[in-house]
Every structure is written in C-alpha cells, then in structure tokens.
Amino acid sequence: MDKAQTDRMSEAPATPQEERAARHLRMLARAAEIQMEIMEATRTEAVEAPQPGADYCKRIAVVAKSLRQTLLLEDKFANHRDERRKAAAKRESAQEDWHDLRVKLAMLAAAYEVSEDDEEVDRRVAEVCERVERPEVAELIAASRPEVAVAALCRRWGFPPEVERWLEMADEAMEHYGFIPPEDGEDDDPEDPPEPRPAAPGRRKPPDTG
Questions:
Q1: Measured on CA atoms in the order 61, 62, 63, 64, is the torsion positive or negative?
Q2: CB neighbours of residue 118 within 10 Å
Q3: d(Cα 23, Cα 27) in Å, to the nearest integer?
Q4: Using alpha carbons only, what angle is made at residue 110 by residues 135 and 123, rounded to the nearest 5 degrees?
Q5: pTM above 0.70?
Q6: pLDDT tens column, 159-184
Q7: 3-class SS at 116?
Q8: Residue 161 contacts by C-beta under 8 Å, 6 or more apart in sequence?
Q9: Are 128 and 111 in contact (CB under 8 A)?
Q10: 31-50: per-residue pLDDT in tens?
C-alpha cells in the first residue's frame, strides 16, 4: 500500500460498523479500568482494614478472572477491526489496479439494465464495448475517478446517472470472477489472477416454474 492510500484511509470518515466497534472497545477499556479499581480497593481493604471472615484472595481471583476475559474480548475486537481495515485496503487497491475494467463493467451494467429485451442488450453492449475503446473515452477513464468517469459517460451515452448502482454491479461481477477480494476479506487468493478483459453481462434466465 502506498502513502496516498494510507492517507486516504486515515482521512476517510468512519463507517457505522467502525464507529460501533470503537464504542465497544471504549466500553471494554472502561470495564477493565473498573475491574482494576475493584482489585486495588480490595487490596487496600485487605491491608489497611481487613474485615473478619472476608476471603480477599478469592475476591481478587474472581475479579482477576473477569479482567482476563475482558482483556481477551478487547483484544478480539481490536484484531477484528484491524482485519476489516486490511480487507478494505486490499479491496480498494484491487479496484484501483482494475480501474479501467471496473468502469467498463459499470457501463455494461447500465446498458444491460436499461435494455428491454435480448436484442437490445446485444446492441447496447456492442456499442459500449466499441465506445470504451475509443482513445478519448479511454483517456477520460484513465484520468478520472470511477464515479466521475461513470457519471460523465452516463450523461454522454444517455444512461440513467445511477453511478453508485452501476459501480456496485461492476464490483459484484469483479468479485465473482476473482478480480477483487470480497468485502468480508475472505479471499482464496488464487495463484493465477485473471487477465483483464471486458465482459458483457448475460441476460438473467427466468425461473424454472416446472
């Protein structure tokens, strides 16, 4: 990961999942502090004002066990958050590596979704495949962020400007064919990564009603 990617990660707003994880970590940290305070108070009482019949060793052992469980849970939450961040960074890096393909698939998804029948799909997909290879379009894609390129091409080619939807469909296709890792980070990491090539989505088959 280069410095620019690291800077984007540090500047990006926290997601709801990250905010919830951070809140849980704060709660666990505070719980650990309280348990330490209980142990200190128990030790102080045992040394300075012991109560008859009080089993201070047992009290401390119970609190110590609870503290260990709290610290283990805190460590688990922290590791899970780090894994999610690494997975997000890996996915973002792959999206950048396959930037051109991602934009092309987004435009193919738009062409597919606005078509009413197979004949129109074939025509629109062929048009998109031809257009994205034009020098001026290739230059636009290479020089622009995916959102900007897709929005511009939607305006230029008369597609609905549902940029986020088209990019999500492109990501689904790229994830399915192994170009980018899944969002949950559970990647098989194949030894032979696929070669980039434009791929036109096929028409969905109607359900088999018997």
A1: positive
A2: 10
A3: 6
A4: 70
A5: no
A6: 999 999 999 999 898 888 888 787 65
A7: coil
A8: 151, 154, 155
A9: yes
A10: 888 888 888 898 888 888 88
